[in-house]
Amino acid sequence: MLTKKQYELLIYIDRRLKSSGVSPSFDEMKDALDLKSKSGIHRLITGLEERGFIRRLPHRARALEVLRLPDNQGEIPSVPASAPAGFSPTVIRGDFRNVLAGTPVSAEVEAVQVPLYGKIAAGTPIDALRDSSASINIPGDMIRGGEHYALTVEGDSMVEAGILDGDTVLIRRCDTAENGTIVVALLDGSEVTLKRLRRKGASVALEPANAKYETRIFGPDRVKVQGRLVGLLRNY
Fold it and tell me: N or C terminus: which one in the chain shows less Cβ crowding within 10 Å?
């Protein structure tokens, strides 16, 4: 599922390629989407590339190729004007199912229900919506105090840490984490990603676990920890 801005950029690039045969410049894309900086365009392009909608042609400036368009072109996800009060991990609303429904739980381990907030990108951060109506049953021995929530992973940038596309991760709510911890990081107050946290001086690095993707570095005021990874669930 694409964010509103990813969808708009994909359609804009596709139309420009079909009309002129040349990819639009970053400045043209920035103006078309009414963004303030080209860094936002870079982030959107990376997200589209990771999700298999476009690819960059090597050794050619401004060269993009649209590989596919979303099936539901007429449905653009809405983004709330402001976030709800209190803690609210930013996630994509989707077809949430209790992925452990019907799964036997040992009689010695009581199941605990935690909220399933939706999808989190394990690649580029994504605009998203919180859905608090879904929940998931977690073996009680995975909960060791504190508040927890679950997210479904989307993307492949954490595969070398054993976190695959479609996995469900269990997150313990916190606002600080040690270096090297895999965290849910809120970026610029509106986007969220699952990455390994690294701090050096005043900088904060969000590090993927996939050699295909680059580590991204931000100022400390741009990144807020919203939880740390404590467990993983996978269906076969």
Answer: C
